[in-house]
Write a structure and sequence with these properties.
Length: 510
């Protein structure tokens, strides 16, 4: 007898419907074959399915069983086909009735028949809705995640036996009731460093506030121990809360990557990723035989922190130039292409020289001028040109280190950042943009250049001539000045706003 059950595959961050076909034949010796380009994990489903069926109180057919995963030219990987294969075998052997054709079945099986957590649930249920499927049988542990997709009835399945009983009408499983999504902010992460506890560096805190308010890229330059890493790890505590749409985007990424925290159906805190400088090209950008998201995608809608920037491999650093501009990254492999989102705020830190004390008033630098030049040239000009804000982080004086708590903490700064982002959402309400850093040349001309006062225009012309700003730097200065004006609650960009944006440009380069 032939049975068919719908399942799903994850391709990049998207999904595709897979039709699981099972044929049980009385002719020939008993066998259990899976065809349709299955990988090792899918091939091993034979043993998991056989044991799960027997341990669930059902009979595993002692016949020739052929499982076809269609379309046959698409590579199948992962354990999510266990449950659909098992239930299709029960249907083909007449131990369970066939479900409606508008159903999709997803889940990994343990040997005793329990249904385990399966990654990529959100995109798989999402593609099921797009293809007109209205019911999804998913692992009980993933029901809350699957229920984030509107228009699909999610049925949580604890065991294979429970699903078989549900299909026979003996013990119906109640659909999962989705929780109401809202934009209520989460509390600050407990591991975050409050800005109140960072001594001194007031000008750096101001630069990070501007960066957080507009989503701009930042490079901090300073000697060892000045507080660059501490300030970077405090930055997530001043970032604005994610909207529901942004949270769903991030959750989709972490679901596919298998990094969704246990017991969490929706990621509400902005990501903060800090890969080590030994990270590979595929680890940062994404890749693998079957393309998987890298660190820049895992930091989507959040912060990517690159500490000790010159220590990263040159090819690795150069690979992030295009994602910074396009805010997406396309990974091409023999198995196919995958496009991942990469709308992140780049936060980088570096020492001024190999020993770290070039220009320090209290420590003598032991590096030769050529060594300092080689060290700084590890970061290419095109990558430097994509940084919006350059800020020096000097050594903190003893008096500031022994002072009491600072007057302003992360909560106060975050409130101003939220207000500023609210102005930007209103400004870009008729477009897909969400922050000033995402503006293109058309938006820069419309929202920045048209709002420059005469004194600011004169200052900008002088800066372009004297600093030899590139066209990209010209636009980035205007975008930062737009953010500075938004923080001040002013529609017009004044000379003071533009002057602050210009002081964030790196001296001596574009």
């Amino acid at each position: 007898m032939l049975a068919k059950v719908n399942s799903c595959a994850v391709i990049g961050l998207d999904g595709d419907i897979i039709e699981v076909e099972v044929d049980i034949s009385n002719q020939g010796l008993p066998a259990f074959n899976i065809v349709g380009l299955p990988d090792t994990a899918v091939q091993e489903a034979r043993e998991r399915v056989r044991s799960a069926i027997r341990n669930s109180g059902h009979m595993f057919p002692a016949h020739r069983i052929t499982v076809n995963l269609a379309p046959a030219d698409l590579r199948k990987e992962g354990p999510s086909y266990d449950l659909p294969i098992a239930i299709a075998i029960l249907i083909a052997s007449q131990q369970a009735p066939e479900p409606r054709h508008d159903c999709v079945v997803l889940g990994e099986l343990s040997l005793d028949g329990r249904v385990r957590h399966t990654g990529g649930m959100l995109p798989m249920v999402g593609i099921a809705r797009e293809r007109g499927l209205t019911t999804a049988f998913v692992p009980e542990a993933d029901a809350a995640e699957a229920a984030l997709v509107d228009g699909v009835e999610v049925v949580p399945v604890a065991t294979l036996g429970a699903l078989a009983a549900h299909l026979r009408g003996l013990e119906p499983i109640a659909p999962h009731v989705p929780e109401r999504l809202d934009d209520a902010p989460d509390a600050l992460p407990p591991e975050g460093v409050d800005f109140r506890d960072v001594k001194g560096q007031e000008h750096v805190k101001r630069a990070l506030e501007v960066a957080a308010a507009g989503g701009h890229n930042v490079l901090m330059l300073g000697p060892p121990g000045a507080g660059k890493t501490l300030l970077a790890r405090a930055t997530p505590t001043i970032l604005p809360c994610m909207s529901t749409d942004e949270a769903l985007e991030v959750t989709r990424v972490y679901s596919v990557a298998g990094m969704l925290p246990a017991g969490t159906s929706l990621v509400r805190s902005r990501p903060f990723r800090a890969p080590h400088h030994t990270v590979s090209h595929a680890g940062l950008v994404g890749g693998g035989r079957v393309p998987r998201p890298g660190e820049i995608t895992l930091s989507h809608r959040g912060v990517l922190f690159l500490d000790e920037l010159p220590e990263f491999a040159h090819s690795v650093l150069e690979s992030i130039r295009q994602p910074i501009e396009d805010r997406v990254v396309t990974v091409s492999r023999a198995q196919g292409n995958a496009t991942f989102p990469a709308n992140f705020m780049l936060l980088a830190a570096m020492n001024p020289c190999p020993c770290g004390y070039y220009g320090d008033p209290t420590h003598e630098c032991s590096c030769s001028p050529s060594a300092v030049t080689r060290y700084r040239h590890r970061i290419s000009g095109p990558l430097m040109d994509r940084m919006d804000i350059f800020v020096e982080v000097p050594r903190v004086d003893y008096e500031k280190l022994t002072d009491g708590p600072c007057a302003e903490g992360s909560a106060e700064i975050r409130e101003r950042v939220e207000t500023c982002r609210g102005l930007q959402r209103l400004r870009f309400s008729e477009s897909r943009l969400s922050s000033n850093c995402e503006m293109g040349p058309v938006e820069v001309r419309e929202f920045c250049q048209h709002f420059l006062e005469d004194a600011a225009k004169s200052l900008l012309k002088m800066a372009v001539d004297q600093l030899a700003l590139s066209a990209r730097s010209f636009h980035r200065v205007l975008k930062v000045s737009r953010t500075v004006a938004d923080l001040a609650g002013e529609e017009t960009i004044t000379a003071a706003h533009l002057a602050e944006a210009l002081q964030y440009r790196q001296r001596g380069t574009n």
